[in-house]
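hey so u asked for the seq, here:
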Amino acid sequence: MRTDLILEDTTLRDGEQAPGVALSSDAKVTLFHTLVESGVKWIEAGIPAMGGHDVHAMKEMLERRDEVNLIAWNRGVREDIEYSLSLGFRAIHMGLPTSNVHLKNSVMKNRSWLLRTAADMIHMAKDQGAFVSVSAEDVGRTEIDFLQEYAGVVHEAGADRLRMSDTIGILNSSEYGKRVAAVAGTVPIDVQCHCHNDFGLAVANTLAGLEAGARYFHVTVNGIGERAGMPDLAQMVMALKQFHKRDLGIDLTKLAGLSHQVSALTGVAVPPWQPVVGANVFAHESGIHTNGMLRDSSTFEPFAPELVGGTRKLLVGKHSGRKMIEHVLNTHGIEVSDDELNRCLVLVRERAVERGGVISDASLIEILSEVRDA
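ran it, structure tokens below
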């Protein structure tokens, strides 16, 4: 895996394309600033051709273009690209399909048109000094030999990178990695991973692409995006740190806060079992687990919650044991006998089932009072 990997966040573009998500101009700018302050250096800001509030937000973002690399997404249309450049973007991306399925049914063109159009648009943008990224959309249904031909054409035209988009998330890790390797091994152009999560493989496929020679990769906060979403920023950052010792310059302590902010802005709740940032990631209820955690926090946690801005929680519930009940009571200065613990345990399990959840400290103290009054 390369040592010069570049994370590019597309929460403001692909993330906002999640059905039901519509960010205001203020929300976009707020999130943009948080991303920058979290250490994200490459951000896909949006689609200028959308106009209106989106362009207003992007103009505000461009005020920090000396601090962060801002990318404008465009169709493979001259007017789109010229407009993006006129706004002050120094980097543009153009979306173009490479599979016959998309060429026929999406843009209603053929591969000759694709090769000609890609080269023409790249030349035009490079003539204006832009960093140019271009897609190979729907790589999962594009023959490898044509991917290589296409990569050669866009490289020759001057493109700075090729985005390999598994547009409908149909590849597994070996197949995605094979396609990245086929391009990276034959054409001297930087490759970017863009993997959708339709089969839950977006993170795994992105890692496979990076292992196969890609340099850039896309993420979104909380993995939001079209259909099943995109690779989650926090998961990718932590996976690269844990398994490949790659530091991407992201402030890990801000990962949980960033996740909470995106959840609040989009109105989409984060599942409690969301890796890295979910509420349950550092929560422990099972008797075996909490016993181990009380002795050594590394027993049932791969990394400390403080590393990613999280908080550890030891909970009392249906699956708790005597040690956890005793621990909670002791923290409130309450000593308890073995017999009282046994009787508390029975009531805790009953009440947890009745309530369908955990038992608060106050409720546990009330249960102990019931046991002592019986």
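The mean pLDDT is 94. The longest strand covers residues 69-75.
lmk if thats what u needed
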